[in-house]
Amino acid sequence: MTWGTYTIDVLKHIVFLTSRFPYPLDQGDKLRAYHHIIALSRQMKVTLITLHEEDISKEGFKAITPYCHQIYSFKYTRVWRRLDALKGFVQGLPLQVAYFYSKPIQMRIHRILDRIEPDHIHCHLVRMSPYISDYEGCTKSLDYMDSLILNDMAHQHLKSKAFGWLRSLEKKRIAAYEKAIHSFFDAHFVISERDRLHLSKENQKDIFLLSNGVDTSEYRPDPGIEKEWDLCFCGNLGYDPNHQAVEFILSKIAGEFPGLSIVIAGARASHGLLQRANRQVKILSPVADMADIYRRSKIQIAPIWEGSGQQNKILEALSVGVPCITTSFVNRSIEAVDGKSIIIEDTQQGFIQSIKMLLSQPETLNRISLEGRAFVKQKFDWEVNTSILIEVIDKISQ
User: Fold this and answer.
1) What is the CATH number of domain 12-213+381-396?
2) Residues 85-110: what's their mean pLDDT?
3) Would you say 291 and 316 are in contact if contact means Cβ atoms under 8 Å apart?
4) Other beta carbons within 10 Å of 255
5) For residue 37, what is the enclosing H or E element?
6) Which contiguous run of DSSP H or E holds residue 270?
7) What percent of the chain has pLDDT over 90?
8) How far is residue 99's CA from residue 80's CA, in Å, rounded to a whole number?
9) DSSP 8-state secondary structure symbol assigned to residue 342
10) CA-CA distances (angstroms) from residue 312 to 29, 93, 167, 229, 266?
11) Domains 12-213+381-396 and 229-379 share a fold
């Protein structure tokens, strides 16, 4: 299906359903939801229905309310989540889905939907699909973002050998669930072609690629800021592939460059990780301004070999003009040109050699910095990418 310039004549009412209040922007799914809400609100009336564990801050409401006609939030504490997860698991749901599902909340959501009669419901992430999979009052779309099977976070807590049977069962249930819910939605969105092929090798006509983006006006270079760190790694430090990347940096890279300064920054750093900071390695968590961390760094390294979706940290660093050294695995969903706008390495020695090369060749570092920002501005603009979301929703909800 080809999408061109499209004019929407009628102000439609869209319900946006998400598992977390989409602010602050400290996790990839919240960042994606936030920008999708902004994009939809430009041409449609958006009602946000969201779960949350902690009380929503005044800053959070202030950030979201300009883009929402109404907001319905349901506090769903960790204690109740765990009880419902156990109940759902016994009933056959994957843990990753059961943890977010509450029958009483579903009933309240359905009453809201019956009252406001939306033109369309957009479900953000598979974990929220049970709330509306059986609702028939309007058309529905589902943003997988990325496949749970490909995303190691879906079962990172089950990696102990003692729970091998549980991990195996979880994988089977997730695969079956992702396949089963396909027919309940009129359109589906994924970040990468890899996720799209995994979800459906046969029927892809209603699965649309919807790339992430980056705010290039916020993530921009500032030549006036002095470089404080030689290497940086930024991201959600509670996410298992990121945790493994940090371990690689601390155990394989730091020792090779004892004279270099390194910063590791992001949300959800464990107490154990914070304790590993030293004179060479600074660990910052949480971070108020991630763009500032990039601006104060010479090179971003992202030694990631598993997970799914797109790495926002790469897009953000490139947008700020920080050259990135990452893996071919990460670059599959970015498709930057190796040696031009990014550096691709898949071995420890490769990372070491590329770090040495960039630090010893300032002209190469500067060239890749300029090419990287130009690449992101061309391919990963939020407004351009979210136009696909708007057009698909408008098309199927007529």
Assistant:
1) 3.40.50.2000
2) 94
3) yes
4) 9
5) helix 28-41
6) none
7) 77
8) 9
9) B
10) 10, 30, 27, 20, 12
11) yes
| pLDDT, tens only, 28-64 | 899 999 999 999 999 999 999 999 999 999 999 999 9
Q: What is the pLDDT of residue 193?
A: 80
Strand 281-284 relative to strand 297-302: parallel, antiparallel, unpaired?
Answer: unpaired
Note the pLDDT tens digit of each residue in 280-307. 999 999 998 999 999 999 999 999 998 7
Burial 140-172 (b: 16+ CB within 10 A, else e): bbbbbbbbbbbbbbbbeebeeeeeeeebebbbe
pLDDT the model gives residue 2:
31
User: CA 347, CA 303: separation in Å to the nearest integer?
Assistant: 9
- Interval 145-202: pLDDT, tens: 987 766 644 445 455 565 678 888 988 899 889 888 999 999 999 988 877 877 765 5
Please name which of 284, 289, 302 lies closest in space to residue 231, comparing C-alpha atoms.
302
| pLDDT tops 70 at residue 393 | yes
Environment class of residue 337 by beta-carbon count within 10 Å: exposed (0-12), middle (13-18) or buried (19+)? exposed
**Residue given tokens 């090369």 in the structure block:** 357
Domain boundaries 229-379, corresponding CATH code: 3.40.50.2000
pLDDT of residue 160: 57
Residues 262, 281 contacting (CB under 8 angstroms): yes
List the chain domain ranges: 12-213+381-396, 229-379
Q: Half-sphere exposure of residue 132, counting CA atoms within 13 Å on the CB side?
A: 31
How far, CA to CA in Å, does 72 sit from each of 41, 48, 125, 143, 230?
16, 6, 18, 20, 45
CA angle 378–383–389, rounded 5-degree value: 115
